[in-house]
Structures are given as structure tokens and as C-alpha cells.
Design brief:
alpha/beta; six-stranded antiparallel β-sheet; eight-stranded mixed β-sheet; Rossmann fold; TATA-Binding Protein
Length: 344
């Protein structure tokens, strides 16, 4: 332990952390759900800070357009066709060999999220849709795990820290899923890297407070930043829990965790793509699938995923049967293409 404390000496010098807080951080476990723009900044900062264990879960693979804001990745990672979780694990192990890093290539859903967050001291949101965030909120409230919400699009972003049964949870603030098409996305508004770094840094700072035994210092408001307008606001939310009837933290009804809400088709932010989750349990044989598809279009695969190009569409399939259909935002078109070329 003394050598590790020396490794993080500049952080230990900060009085609010000190040796005791750093020792707690070294023993802690953080789960980051998503490894895109927010997730890469979060993972990099927590790894350098000496978080004992980092588990990173992401469903996606790398593309060149990711490099503008996803700070852990390189052009070489893109050329290798690596899943984000794999590339992140590789990079983080180079940054800090003292941290136990686990990158999992998987879609977070109600069937698996409990096993992903088991033993976590804190969960960081790096997802791109409210459906998954409501799922995170359910599991965090059920198991009393602190978590930090974060979102960014265009030049602005938001963050909120949730300590179950102490602060309002996400469903205290947002009672139901926003209607499709009502909110701007990376597709329609783009996203600036600086706002990603701002929001992710706020999330990491809040996580470090919790992990070092300084939960009393967390921000208990909803934070809004706009880096283009050089403005920021804090919204008082304390009354949302005491005055409402939240189905999660007040009633104990976990609709998303129980699979009663949500879907298995997700439109991906900034990708003109739709994810199809078939819930398959058997691993796909990429060689056989590639043999079947090659007469129809270009096929490339590695041990992690297979990519099939047909006209204006690309279908990327992971070994668990999950697919991402690129070239459409229409779930029906995506389902049809997946069923036709991969199988229903």
C-alpha cells in the first residue's frame, strides 16, 4: 500500500482525500455502463486516480467518427475493428497496471444488468438512451448502489448524483420515458468534445467523493452546462422525492429491471443505426455465417464480431447474436434486414 500511495501522492496531498481516502479508493469497484464519449473520459480518469477495479460494459464497435471525442481510442483500434470495451481494456492496462480492468462486450439489459453491477461501490452512466438509464436507476435503487447520471449532446450536458433513499433518483425527476423524436440526439445536433469532458469530469469527481468516504460533499442538484454559451445552472431537486410517488424509490416497483418496460430494439445515438437484441444464448459460428453471406456482399470478421455490407446497409453481428444494422433509423427495416440475412 505505501508504494501505491506514493504513486498517487499528488492526489493524497489533497486534504479531503488524504491517505485514508486514497486507500478506500484503491479498494473500491466501479462499473461504467457504456464506453463511448462519456465512458472513455470516465474510465481514463478513474484509472489514473487509482480506482481498485474498473468494469466497463459496452455493446458497440469502433468507427473513425468516434475518435473526435472518445479519448481512449486510436486509428489503429479502428483499423483492427475492435469492440470499444476491448480497446478500452487494452489501453487502460497500459495506463495503470495497478488497476484491475475488465472490458465486457455486451448489451446492458434487464436480464444481465444485475450480474454486471454485482459488488459495485458506484455505477457511472455513459449510455446514450433513457431506457437504459431507467434500467440503471432500477438496479441501483434496488441494491442501494450510488450512481451518477450524465448526458451530453450538441454543446450542453447534464449530470445528477443519485444515492438511493437519500437523494431523488432519476425517476423522481423524469417519471416516464420521453416520447421518441422529442429530444435532440447526436444525429440531429452533433456533439462537441469539450462538453463531453466537462460532464464526464463532473461524474468522476462525484464518484471519487463517494468512494473516498466524502458522500456528504456530493452535489445534490441537477447540473446543466453549455460550453458554447458559456453558461451553467443548478436546479434544486430535493423536493422531487419527498413530494412525489416515485415508482422506484418510493413504491419499490422496478418496471424496467423486471422487463415490464423497455424494448429489445434500440436506435443508437449518432449512428443512423438500430440495435437488434435477439437474446440468443448460443455463440454464432462466424466462419459458417461468412461463407453464407459472401455471395451477397462484403464480409469481414474477427473473434469479436462479423460485419456484412449490402448496398447502403451494414449489419454487424456479435457472437451472442446481437446485431447493429447501420443505414437506417427504422426499427422495422432493421428487423427485416436482420431476419433476412442473419436469421429471425
Amino acid at each position: 500500500m505505501p508504494e501505491l500511495l506514493e504513486k498517487y501522492s499528488r492526489q493524497v496531498l489533497f486534504p479531503e482525500i488524504g491517505e485514508k481516502g486514497q486507500a478506500r479508493l484503491i479498494q473500491s469497484k466501479v462499473v461504467i455502463l457504456g464506453c463511448g464519449a462519456l465512458g472513455t473520459v470516465q474510465a481514463d480518469a478513474l484509472c489514473r486516480a487509482g480506482t481498485g477495479s474498473l468494469r466497463i460494459v459496452d455493446r458497440d464497435f469502433l468507427e473513425e467518427s468516434n475518435l473526435q471525442r472518445q479519448t481512449l481510442f486510436s486509428e489503429d483500434d479502428v483499423q483492427k475493428g475492435l469492440p470499444k470495451a476491448v480497446a478500452a481494456e487494452n489501453r487502460l492496462r497500459q495506463i495503470n497496471s495497478s488497476v484491475r480492468v475488465e472490458g465486457l462486450v455486451a448489451d446492458v439489459n434487464y436480464k444481465n444488468i444485475e450480474q454486471f453491477v454485482e459488488g459495485a461501490d458506484c455505477i457511472l452512466d455513459a449510455t446514450d438512451n433513457f431506457e437504459t438509464r431507467f434500467l440503471i436507476n432500477d438496479v441501483a435503487v434496488k441494491y442501494k448502489i450510488p450512481w451518477i447520471y450524465g448526458a451530453s449532446v450538441g454543446s450542453y450536458g447534464l449530470s445528477m448524483t443519485v444515492i438511493p433513499f437519500e437523494t431523488p433518483c432519476l425517476r423522481c425527476i423524469f417519471e416516464s420515458l420521453p416520447p421518441p423524436g422529442i429530444s435532440p440526439t447526436c444525429d440531429t445536433a452533433g456533439v462537441l468534445a469539450p462538453i463531453v469532458n466537462v460532464i464526464a469530469s463532473i461524474q468522476v469527481a462525484e464518484a471519487i467523493k463517494i468512494l473516498t468516504g466524502n458522500s456528504h460533499c456530493i452535489n445534490r442538484k441537477l447540473i446543466f452546462f453549455d460550453v458554447w454559451k458559456s453558461s451553467w445552472k443548478q436546479y434544486e431537486i430535493a423536493s422531487a422525492r419527498s413530494e412525489g410517488e416515485c415508482p422506484a424509490c418510493q413504491v419499490g416497483r422496478f418496471e424496467f429491471l423486471e422487463g415490464k418496460e423497455g424494448s429489445t430494439v434500440t436506435t443508437l445515438c449518432g449512428r443512423n443505426s438500430v440495435q437488434i437484441n435477439q437474446g440468443r444464448e448460443n455463440r454464432l459460428d462466424f466462419e459458417q455465417l461468412a461463407k453464407r453471406l459472401r455471395p451477397l456482399g462484403a464480409v469481414h470478421f474477427n473473434q469479436f464480431l462479423l460485419r456484412f455490407n449490402l448496398d447502403n446497409f451494414e449489419i454487424a453481428v456479435f457472437q451472442d447474436g446481437r446485431g447493429i444494422v447501420r443505414g437506417t433509423k427504422d426499427p422495422n427495416v432493421a428487423r427485416s434486414l436482420y431476419a433476412k440475412y442473419i436469421g429471425a
